[in-house]
Every structure is written in structure tokens, then in C-alpha cells.
């Protein structure tokens, strides 16, 4: 059986559901009984490996006593988690931790990078690159 690849939305949903379950002092077994499934489904959902049907998600939110202010946000996240993701063949060959980085890169909306001595590649100009090469050449010749 093929397993769904964790996505950012599934991971966020799983983390939110785990926080709500723990705050409500409920076990995965109790949660599984509410949505009439096996505990492995609850565990896989909390790890971001599976999504829930909206009806199951609503039942869990009721069971956990989720605050009204968070319910709509979590339901939207649940809907997004159910969307089929485009296959990315290049990242499927990566080991787990690198695949997660690849997933984060795809979902990124801004670059946050700090380097005190070198400008990141995407921001480098031709003149900047020439200056770096000249400095490196001088350092090699003098050293």
C-alpha cells in the first residue's frame, strides 16, 4: 500500500490536533473511538502522514473542546491537507530529512537568510562576484 507523503499542511494539522488532544487530556485511543477508527490512523494523522475527512475532523474538534476561534482555521487547514499534491520526482529519491527540506522550500513564501560576510547567490551581482574572486586570488597569492 502506498503511503501519502507528509506535506506542510498535513504536518501543521497533525501538530494542531496533537496539541488540542493533549490539552483536552485525551488519549489517541479515545480519539480513535470517536471517529471509529484504529489508533494508528490518529497517530499517522498527528505525524502528518495522513489527513482526515472533514466530518472526522469536526468530530475530533468537538471531542477536544476546540475553541471556536481556532475551529475555522483548523477546518481550512484540514481542507488544504486533503488536496492532492503534485508529484515531485526529484524529491522522492531524497532521504527523509532532505525530503522535508524540499517540501518546506516548495511552500516557502519568502527568503530569510543572514550571512555576515557573503551575499546569498540569488542576490549577487556580477561586480560582487568579481570582487570576491579578486579577494580570494590575492589571499592565495599572498599566503
How would you portray this structure in words?
The chain has 143 residues and is mostly helical. The chain has eight helices and no strands. It has helices at 8-23, 28-34, 39-46, 54-64, 68-81, 89-92, 96-107, 126-142. Helix 1 packs antiparallel against helix 5 (68-81) and helix 2 (28-34) packs across helix 3 (39-46). The longest helix is centred in the C-terminal third of the chain and has 17 residues, at 126-142. The protein is elongated and about 70 Å long. 18% of the residues are buried.
Number of E-type strands: 0
Helix and strand run: HHHHHHHH
Strand content: under 5%
Shape: elongated
Mean pLDDT: 82
As an assembly, this protein is: single chain
Write the SSE topology:
Layout (H helix, E strand, L loop, with lengths): L7 H16 L4 H7 L4 H8 L7 H11 L3 H14 L7 H4 L3 H12 L18 H17 L1
